[in-house]
Amino acid sequence: MRLFFSETLRKLRTEKGLSQQELADKMYVTRSTVVRWETGSRLPDAAMISRISEALSVDVNLLLSVAAQSDGCPNVIMVDDRKLILSGGLPILEKVMPNAEIMGFTNATDAIEYAKSNRVSLAFLDIELRNTSGLDLCRALLEINPRTNVVYLTAYSEYAFDAWSTGASGFMLKPITAQGVLEQLKKLRYPFWTGGDGA
User: Fold this and answer.
1) Which superfamily is assigned to 75-185 in CATH?
2) What is the per-residue DSSP string for 18-72?
3) Where are the domains positioned within the chain?
4) pLDDT band, residue 71 (cuts 50/70/90)
5) Hey, is 127 helix, strand or coil?
6) Which end of the chain has the lower number of beta carbons within 10 A, N or C?
7) CA proximity to 123, closest of 105, 178, 173
8) Percent of the chain at pLDDT above 90?
């Protein structure tokens, strides 16, 4: 049975003998922020989890792991205008992230429409898409959900500098590999439970 972040945080805080207000004071956040974490209505990002680990003197990896498992079944998308890339990449993503709902798209418009009605945890985006740029698609996805992790896929390493300026979590050169995906999962800004060995 998975431990949920809210339950874990409450347990660790009470073991340290801290009230919600005292934890909030140590972290320079409001008590209502701690309440939201402990009721499960809000999940802190990786940077805030690191601050929680310092405030409670607990291993940050424990908190990150529990937070990842609290995210449920994540939605992961891959957007590439070449069907061959999608047909080769999607099975790799499914193997590495067996707990995720994996969807592929050949155009940005369909991906955006999907993101509007489904909370996307991770998006693998080709940088050179027909009629648009993966960089613009990244911005659109982050506008819909700022907690979407974006990893760029490209055959051209010279795009790396532009890619970082968009708020992406990572950058992978094609072809996509299981090992490459596992490495990217370790670097996500907003980690989530994948169900795989690299989770």
Assistant:
1) Response regulator (3.40.50.2300)
2) --HHHHHHHHTS-HHHHHHHHHTS----HHHHHHHHHHHT--HHHHHHHHHHTT-
3) 5-69, 75-185
4) low
5) coil
6) N
7) 105
8) 51
